Each structure stands twice: as structure tokens, then as C-alpha cells.
Amino acid sequence: MTGGPYDPRAVANLMLDEADRSGIKVTNLALQKLLYFAHSIFLIEGKRPLVSGYFEAWQYGPVHPTAYAAFKTAGSSPIDFRATGQNVMTGERTTLSLPEDLSVRRHVARIVSSYGRLSPGRLVDISHAKDAPWHYIADKGRTSVALGLRIPDDVIVNRFKNHKVSVGAAPVAGEPDEDTPLT
Questions:
Q1: Please, which pLDDT band fits residue 1 given cuts at 50, 70 and 90?
Q2: Taking a C-beta distance cutoff of 8 angstroms, is the pair 58, 182 a contact?
Q3: What pLDDT, on a 0 to 100 scale, did the predictor assign at position 2?
Q4: Spatial separation of the C-alpha atoms in residues 8 and 15, rounded to whole Å
Q5: Could you tell me if 46 and 59 are in contact, meaning their C-beta atoms sit under 8 angstroms apart?
Q6: Three-state SS for 104?
Q7: How far from chain centre, in Å, is Cα 114?
Q8: Which of 59-63, 64-68, 75-79, 178-182 has the least mean pLDDT?
Q9: Calpha distance 42→70 (Å, rounded)
């Protein structure tokens, strides 16, 4: 394993490419959960972060603000474009380089294969599992100061094991259209 952590927009682009190859349509809400699961599992298995930056606890689960901003224009529709970068000197839009590390590419393919066909509501349910990272930070935010409701990597490592898949016929959260920050 080499490189990383990677730009979250580049990893999201890689996920969208993999989803396209598999015939899976992905909304921004679903992409945020897929990116979070990919980062978390990579962090636990590889002992290093997959993406740079941080995730925050928003109403419908973990969100990476940088990746969210890159895809928010898709709204609740399936994403049909890729995030770009911007040259700070010229303002010109640039293509983001995808991670070339084969272990990263395989990992992303595995996450898309495992979670990509789940509905956004089901992904939200998984991310909201009791005592899992989102729940822990959101609960802490209700009872104490949780600066920006960030979900630190150490909380992910210690609490990701608490994610459980609900077995009911329908997602507990319903099928939300779009993420919103917790307020």
C-alpha cells in the first residue's frame, strides 16, 4: 500500500466510475455513506486514512463536507458528472487524479459491490446504528460541546464495529432525498 490519504473527491469519482461499471445509480446522499464506509473500513484494515479531511455528523449520517460540496448540485438525482479541482492561480477547472494504488481500487470496488445497491435509507440506517461513530458524536453533541460535530478517525476505529444492518422491510429513516447538517 502506498500513497494517500487521497482527495475525497477523487475517491468519490473512483466510486462513481465503479458504480457506473456495475450499473448502479448513486445519489449524493448515498455517495457520502459509501465514502464514509470506504474510509472507515480502510482505516481499520489498513491502519491509515483513505481520504484527507474529515467527516461530520449530519442529519442523515456521516458526510465529508468537501465531497458533499463537489456533488451537491446533483441534489437527490443520481450523479452523472465527476468532481473537478481548481487551479488556485488561474481559477481553471482541472481533472482530479484517481488513486492508482491497486489495493485502493480493489477496496473501492469491494465497497461499491457490498453497499452500492442498498437504498439511501438503508445506508442511513447502517450509519445511524447505536454506539457507532455517527450516533456517538451526535449524542455527544446533544449533551456536551462537540466542535463542528466532526467524527474523528479514532472514534471511527473504536466504534465502527457497532454498525449493524437493520432487518426490517423498510429503512427506519425512510428514503431521505438529501443530507442536511445537524443543527
A1: very low
A2: yes
A3: 61
A4: 10
A5: no
A6: helix
A7: 14
A8: 178-182
A9: 22
The answer for 86, left when phi > 0, alpha when psi is -120 to 50, beta otherwise, is: beta
Indicate the pTM of the whole model: 0.86
10 Å Cβ neighbour count for 75?
12
Q: Are β-strands 55-58 and 93-95 bridged in parallel, bridged antiparallel, or unpaired?
A: unpaired
Helix residue ranges, H only, the chain: 8-21, 28-46, 65-71, 102-115, 120-127, 133-143, 153-159
Cα separation, 172 vs 58, whole angstroms:
16
- Whole-angstrom distance, CA of residue 74 vs CA of residue 141: 29
Please give the single-letter amino acid code of residue 87: N
Report the C-alpha gap between 91 and 71 in whole angstroms: 19
Calpha distance 57→136 (Å, rounded): 9
C-alpha cell at 74: 446533483
CB count within 10 Å of CB 41 equals: 19
| Alpha helices (H) in 47-178, listed in sequence order | 65-71, 102-115, 120-127, 133-143, 153-159
